[in-house]
Amino acid sequence: MNLNWNNPKHGPRGRLMVAVSCLCIALLWCGSVQAEKRWDGTKWIEERPAVLGTPRGDIATIRALLEAERVKEAVIKVEGFLARHAHSPLCEEAMNLAGCAKIAQGHYWDAYEWFERQIEEFPNGPLLSRALDREYQIGEAFLQGRKRRVMRVLKLSAEGEGVEILDKITEHSPASFLARKALLRIAKYHFDEGEFDESVRRYDEFVEQYPHSPKRAMAMIQAAHASLQRYRGVQWDTDPLHEAAERYRVIQAAFPAAAKAEGIASILAEIHASLAHKVYHMGLFYERTKKPRAAAYYYSMVVRDYRTTRWASDARTRLGVLGNIIPLKPSLLPKDFKPSRVAPNMPPPVVRVNPAMPVATPNLELQPAPKPTPKPVVDKSKPIPMRDLLKELRKSREDTSKKD
Fold it and tell me: How far is CA 69 from CA 10, 50, 63, 74, 82, in A?
């Protein structure tokens, strides 16, 4: 059909048919153009239609299987895809799809291994963030108690694996938001499990690595809380109390609003009271072990340094019970102290001296000790003659008879 618009042979009806034909051709042309182009985020790029057997066609098949929840077939297709198209950049997506299929099956550790393989072979690929996000979900599931399948039968606790997975995320992409989130989650996990030393270390690691993070104040507060939780009571060392108090003071100076919202002033008052209780307990210990001067030393310390606490009044009561006594720190001894050489549990000898009698001063000069008589040297290399032995035997008999 001649599509010339100005052809005089065409009437109004012919011209209408020509217009409709041109419109259909234009629509078909536009559809074919859009089918052959793909937007990559910055520009349109030419793309051939997906054909089964090609990388694009096979990856489309895997996507369709995953959408249809045929996850086992999808994993099998991925393994075949990696064997046939080993050098295709779409291998990254194939591994990612295999990991998603394993998650759908409930095999979280197998999924993690697929994502790790993807990150290892494509460390800077466009699907890196998607893989890291899936790994975080797996690590979080393990920390919340999800079991890990072993030998297709056993299901074991995998909280340690969860921490390991989150640690891997911080190694793969340390500057990402997900890495900061993973590190805070690890620190919180140790805090919830009562592993306060490790929790303090993790929170300090976050503060050091991300000094400009908006979560910095929260991490410092949590580290101080964890440090305070390490104190086990009056019978234990007070270093955790002093460390926690120092951390809280730093927070008060750096983040006054957050410190006020957290009630750090009251926490510091409680720490002060705990230290007073510890010193008072030391006084009770020395009073119980019959060392009143040492006990008075610690009671006086409570009254002097912790007078605003309830333990100050108790310490004054104990000092009143001890009476007028000079406090003495247990680690110090009086200058005139001399160690006693009297045997234990034996009273010292009582020496009565008459003041009217002169006291003789003993001569303290050492006299030379007499030299011992040298023993006769016997030559053991020669045998003793028999006659000498008989003489010795006869002499010993005579001496024995005289004594009788």
Answer: 58, 22, 10, 9, 21
